Amino acid sequence: MSNRYIIPVGKEWSISRLEELHPPLDPAICLNLAARYHIQSWILPAVCQLLDRFENGGRRIRAITDMEIGVMGIVAYSAIGRADKAIRAERYKVCRAQIALYHDAPDCRVGLGARRKCEDSWNLTLQTKMPGILLNPDSYTPLADLPSVLSTLYFPNVNVVCKSLSIEKLKASHCVTIEETIKQLAADKLWEQFGP
Ligand SMILES: [Zn+2]
User: Fold this and answer.
1) What is the pLDDT of residues 76-125, one digit of tens each?
2) Measured between alpha carbons, how far is residue 16 from residues 26, 74, 102, 121, 187 in Å?
3) How many domains does the chain have?
4) Mutual angle of helices 74-96 and 43-51, in 10-degree steps
5) Structural domain containing residue 117
6) Is residue 70 located within the same domain as residue 142?
7) Are 67 and 35 contained in the same domain?
8) Domain shared by 166 and 84, yes or no
9) Ligand 1: distance of its center to the CA of 161 in Å?
10) CA 156 / ligand 1 centre spacing (Å)
11) Which has fewest Cβ within 10 Å: 109, 117, 140, 158?
């Protein structure tokens, strides 16, 4: 790399050539180079690629090889590990805490019985289906996709308008952005740790 010659133009040129590589550089190498040559823009994409490694249908941090850990270094690997743990914790939390139901059907607004029926069906369906959607080790649904997954899910006695209002509210909640936020925070922290 041209860093040793202190020619910024050369650095920019090298970065853009490396970004054009096919197949692209391994994310572990990107993190190594990002740390050595202060390339902030490479950190987040590499963090995302490492966190979203798949094996047998599931997202697996163990799919990161020992060689990659050696290349990226223990600081970066620990950051990836912590972010992975945080994402898992959020998914468990969403699975355990019931997603809020907002009633919008006239029936539900006036009748306590109709409201109860709507609510029971919503809760029961979520309790039954959510573990399979969010905690299945062999398939991965990002929390960002939860609104579209719920919209295709059959809730036997939930009023259609209550369902769609609740899904709209879910779309606007932090639940759908939390995984991306955790990745961004991990990348920001790494950038700090890589130092000047
Ligand atoms: Zn309702």
Assistant:
1) 999 999 999 999 999 999 999 889 999 999 999 888 899 999 999 999 99
2) 16, 27, 49, 54, 20
3) 2
4) 60
5) 99-176
6) no
7) yes
8) no
9) 7
10) 12
11) 109
Ligand 1 center to residue 162 CA distance, Å? 5
140 C-alpha to ligand 1 centroid (Å): 29
What digits encode the pLDDT tens for the residues 167-196?
A: 999 999 999 999 999 999 999 999 999 977
Residues 7 and 85 in one domain: yes
* 6 and 84 co-located in one domain: yes
Half-sphere exposure of 76 (CA within 13 A, CB side): 29
Task: Tell me the CA–centroid distance for residue 149 and ligand 1, in Å.
Answer: 19
- Ligand 1 centroid–CA 170 distance in Å is 15
In this structure, are 106 and 162 located in the same domain?
yes
Q: How far is the CA of 101 from the centre of ligand 1 (A)?
A: 8
* 14 and 81 part of one domain: yes
Q: Specify whether 50 is located in the same domain as 8.
A: yes
For residue 3, give the amino acid letter: N
Under 8 Å between Cβ of 48 and 7: no
